[in-house]
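@channel sequence for tomorrow's demo:
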Amino acid sequence: MGRHEAPPRPASILVAIASYGASNRRYLEQLIETYRGFSQQVSIVVLSNEPKDLGADVEVRVGLPSPDPWSLPFAHKALFAERQDEFDYFIYSENDTLITQANFDAFAEVEETLPEHCIAGFLRHEIGPDGALHYSTVHGSYHWEPATVQVIEGEVFANYSNEHSAAFILSRQKLKHCIASGGFLRDPHVGRYDMLCSAATDPYTGCGLQRLICVSRIEEFSLHHMPDKYVGRIGVPKAEIDLQLAAICRHARAGVPLAELLRPERRVPSTARYDRCYYSAPLPSAVAAMPATPARILSVGCDQGQTEGNLVERGHAVDAIPLDPVIAASSELRGVTTLPIDADDPLGRIEPGAYGSVLMNFYLPFVPDPVAALREAARVIEPGGRVVLSFWNWQSLRETVHRRRERRSFPDRADAGDFARSGIHRTDPATVRRWMQQAGFRLDHITYDVPSGKEWLSRLTLGAADRWLAPTATAVSAPIGTPQG
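structure tokens (generated this afternoon):
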């Protein structure tokens, strides 16, 4: 540094924390204490529905953007717009999600390397009683997006489709971009996320920025959800996610694109409910459909692999065509052998008669021609084998009521079930039976997954009510080669 050069000015940060009521007071105080310890110049504003005494150095803004209590998180937007020229960085978070000095420093470092249209993002984790980390962001239909995987300045980045991490960081430049886009200073709203989550995702979902997570340094890009209340309920242990990230890094650094068996997102903008799930629970009806003695089984559309892993535990040899090579790491952890993915011809490399059973694992609703897919499956089944088709039962009363209610509030959801408009076929017992018959199979039986607590009604009706009780089911063909009856 020259004699007359001034030392560099520490970066300045405006932090906005949404804090409704008093239930998370201890987490809020921990957040404030953490920000007070930052090496940067930090100004803290707490957005609240009621007055709070949090110290002389903490500004408390009281008031809701709309009468809906869930609108409180949107209050940070006007604040950031007012002070966009006063700070270098802007942090928003809910009052139970911790951003540490290490998180911020890692963000500031990689942000310098990202293209202008990209922004560094975060996952969220929780800590179990044994001290092990669990990624609570990871569940349901959310997944690593293969098309976003890239190497930048030696680090591997990818987007995770669950863009809600309850917090974000914006540089002044990126904040100005968001404001200019017209997607930031909007009234409180909902979409694929509820109102609470929408406030924390708008920079990525409504302002033209692409979020990228630095997966090769994931520990620095994961935020602690301090209540740890989802451990054992939703989320995936770090040890399993590390296997997925290793697969991403391996493909990225080798320059090998990550294939996808199908695009999991459906064309129903207001919800992710119709997207293909990546973390399905074991499906009892599918397990029950398999032979009692060890057999060779092919699963088409394997996700995390809990159903397939259950079959492995029962002595079956299970091969799988996974949804993508990343989720394949999870199914391999459960003893499943995964095969290469060719979305145009998934079964093309498989020898005729190679398997005793083929499980179509919630796969057919997402392909344009389910009958053609079933006919191709027949080629790889040995004589006396079966095709087993797991499906989401749209005829169930719960599903019927749910869809009737949601269509009243979200008209676009009326398209769900029409493949041309939504990208998903309706599946119910009659539809599945018709697909099987058109493909040349004879339906042997359907087993329904009756929810716990409803078994008494199933027994009372001798199973006649099952098709209206069960949200999922599995159809099983007659043995291949048996005469049509």
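heads up for whoever presents: The chain is about 30% helix and 20% strand.
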